[in-house]
Amino acid sequence: MPSSVHTVLQITDLHFLPQKGEQMYGIDTEHYFHLVLHHAIKSRPQIDLILVTGDLTQIPNASSYQRIFNKLNPTKIPTICLPGNHDDWELMNDTFNVESASCIKQANLGKWQIICLNSQKAGCASGHLKESELLFLEKTLQNNKQKPTLVAVHHNCLATGSTWLDTMTIENSEALFAILKKHPQIKLIIHGHTHQTQEFKFEHLKILSTPSTCFQFKPTSHEFAIDNTDPGYRLIDLNDDHSFTSEVIRVVIR
Fold first, then answer.
1. Which helix (H) or strand (E) holds 126?
2. How far is CA 86 from CA 45, 58, 83, 169, 208, in A?
3. How far apart are CA 96 and CA 118, in angstroms?
4. CA distances from residue 253 to 35, 46, 195, 198 in whole angstroms, order as listed
5. β-bridge mates for residue 248, sequence order
6. Residue 188 gets which letter from DSSP?
7. Which residues of 3-28 are buried (b: 16+ CB within 10 A; e: fewer)?
8. What is the CATH number of the domain that holds 238?
9. What does the pLDDT read at residue 147?
């Protein structure tokens, strides 16, 4: 692949449990994560950045984060981890800000910049962008007007069509949209949280959701329901001409 193309691997919603081998909804979430990561690296040997977009754990504890780090770090691929509603942000920072893994909020990749937002609202499943996050986004965009930008966040900012899930979007998404409208250098937003694949167009950019590395939610469901679809990941090729391509790849488990 030419050097003018930079590949991002997005994995999301790992939901590690406190003990290795534990299951959630009949799924060994840790084992599935291993399968998905192995598949992604085998299918695309040249990955320039891994973005882990939240809910790394279901019940946060130091052991779970360490086991995730122990799997990601040997890849030697720069990795940025974002918090989800199930995560402990302090524990994440204690674990991941070493060697190739981090919780940094801004990075450059070729001619692109990556902005990572924290949508976590303490003690709540829904998302919220604090004033400090919105100011950081605005300032970073103002300082890099010529750089095409990918924004990563855990929670979705648009409705999914699932009644129960749409109670847990970013509560102040209108404040986010007000910033997005002003900055045409933003090309795409990627997020997790919804455990399904969706694609939306908003103004000049695309908003993309990505399946979980473990269990999936049934689309357009009125009540909580698990879907019988395989886990997956997203590959995004960022081109130095400011264009990008993206695809979701499923890992067949059954």
1. none
2. 31, 6, 8, 14, 21
3. 15
4. 9, 24, 16, 21
5. 234
6. E
7. eebbbbbbbbbbbbbeeeeeeeeebb
8. 3.60.21.10
9. 95
Q: Residue 116: beta bridge partners?
A: 152
The answer for residues whose C-beta is within 8 angstroms of residue 172's C-beta and 6 or more apart is 128, 129
Count: domains in the chain = 1
Q: Residues in the chain with pLDDT < 70?
A: 1-3, 254
Please give the model's pTM, rounded to 2 decimal places: 0.96
Neighbours of 229 (CB within 10 A): 19
Residues 6 or more apart from 159 whose CB is under 8 A from it? 166, 169
The answer to whether 10 and 190 are in contact (CB under 8 A) is: yes
Task: Report the candidate in 249, 235, 250, 231 with the shortest Cα–Cα distance to residue 32.
Answer: 231
- Give the Cα separation of 201 and 63 in Å (integer): 39
pLDDT at 59: 95
> Measured between alpha carbons, how far apart are the two ends of the chain, in Å?
32
The type of residue at 58 is Q
pLDDT of residue 1: 45
Domain, as residue range, for 47: 5-250
pLDDT of residue 3: 63
